[in-house]
Amino acid sequence: MNSSERNLRAVNLPADWAPDSWRARPALQMPTYPDPAGLEQALAELRRLPPLVTSWEIFSLKKQLAEAQEGKRFLLQGGDCAESFSDCESGLISNRLKVLLQMSLVLVHGMHLPVVRVGRFAGQYAKPRSADSETRDGITLPSYRGDLVNQPEFTEAARVPDPRRMIKAHARSAMTMNFVRALIDGGFADLHHPEYWNLSWVGYSPLANEYQQMVSSLGDAVRFMETLAGSEVHNRIDFYTSHEALLLPYEEALTREVPRHWGWFNLSTHYPWIGMRTAAVDGAHVEYLRGVRNPIAIKVGPSVHPDQLLRLIDVLNPDDEPGRLTFIHRMGAAQIADRLPPLLEAVRRDGRRVLWVCDPMHGNTESTSNGYKTRRFDNVRSEVEQSFDLHASVGTRLGGVHLELTGEDVTECTGGARELTDVDLERAYRSTVDPRLNYEQSLEIAMCIVRKQNQLAVPTLR
Ligand code: PEP
Ligand code: CO
After folding, report:
1. How does pLDDT run across 81-101, given as a tens digit for each residue?
2. Number of domains in the chain
3. Residues of the chain with confidence (pLDDT) below 50
4. Which residue of 14, 240, 279, 329 lies most exposed, with the fewest beta carbons within 10 A?
5. Which residues line ligand 1 (CB under 6 A)?
6. Phi and psi of 304, rounded to 5°?
7. pLDDT tens-digit series, residues 338-357
8. Listed residue (356, 415, 412, 406) closest to 384, CA to CA
9. How far is the CA of 363 from the centre of ligand 1 (A)?
10. What is the CATH number of the domain that holds 227?
11. Closest ligand to 275 CA?
């Protein structure tokens, strides 16, 4: 352990923690593997495989998140509800990256803040479920828990949890990350060439003009800087990954020590989060995340009490380390005004350092009369806008958004500039889990964020 670094950071190795100490706690949402020897063999293999990220990257993200806590950056975290093995495909990956880059360009341009870019990808393969099993026509099978665990088809063979899928998920995550890294390192994200990220809609969308104006004004700014500097401005960007740390044996196998930093790191992703269903303070998931040095996030739903939140902070960030802890609130547009302020007040009163992020998706899911799970764009927008106002009124700060989106022309959420209706959902509904914003709705939400933030910023400038 590097003690000078430890003193510098004033962070301590948590007591009584080990990568497997979660095993002594109640672990919700875990599959039952019928073949323990096969499970152990897969985990042993996983423990030997190279990690997907490095501790250096983890620290640079933590620093950026610390800056977001101070209002010097804004976090954009987005991607599919769940990735699937079959969607590990170049077009889908690059389109998702394009839409995230376009959104970050809108945010940078409109908010005058650097953006922390985090994908909900390269490992987002496990899903929490409301029941352990599913019954159809008198047949009961284990629930589908994401491609990391089993397959969605309703057959015994597909649903039985298969530990080899963890090896495949690791490989698919590595391929996804490799492609994203190569695109970014190769200049795909270069502001000199925003046309690289154009998606077909740019030609005909109602939002196209506004977007193209931003692109050209940013291009002018870059050229102006270059004229001043007398050389080319290099705008290399960082992109980080995140996923729900749900399947703890998988996360444990990728939890490692590294030569140059003390402590343990989850090296399967930069920024693991735990979902609303597994965020009990004495549960296995909180115990696991307590000991890794990554920045971590916790989803906070409408039933969480302020005391629970303060206990989570005590356990997960006892040293009040900057950038360490994010709370992603996901209350729903109808509940946020009642539920969020007491939480914000409690944390502010206690003087605790957290990054507050709004997930306007998961509290706004509903079913249509024609049987689709959807979200209305107006509710998504309203939850984000209310978040800005509620934080401003309590004196805390909204530091980012967490969105489910895709770079494809899907019709899964209704509303938006194209005013999609319930009937449109039939045209291109592809998600097997939660409905995602399509590329155009994603851009539109980025524009709404900018407008809202600018409205709030005006009085403080006077
Ligand atoms: C999710 O992010 O896909 C999810 C299940 O969220 P939550 O835990 O907030 O319900
Ligand atoms: Co989801």
Report:
1. 999 999 999 999 999 999 999
2. 1
3. 1-4, 6-8, 460-462
4. 14
5. 81, 128, 275-277, 299, 330, 362, 434
6. -75, 135
7. 999 999 999 999 999 999 99
8. 356
9. 9
10. 3.20.20.70
11. 1
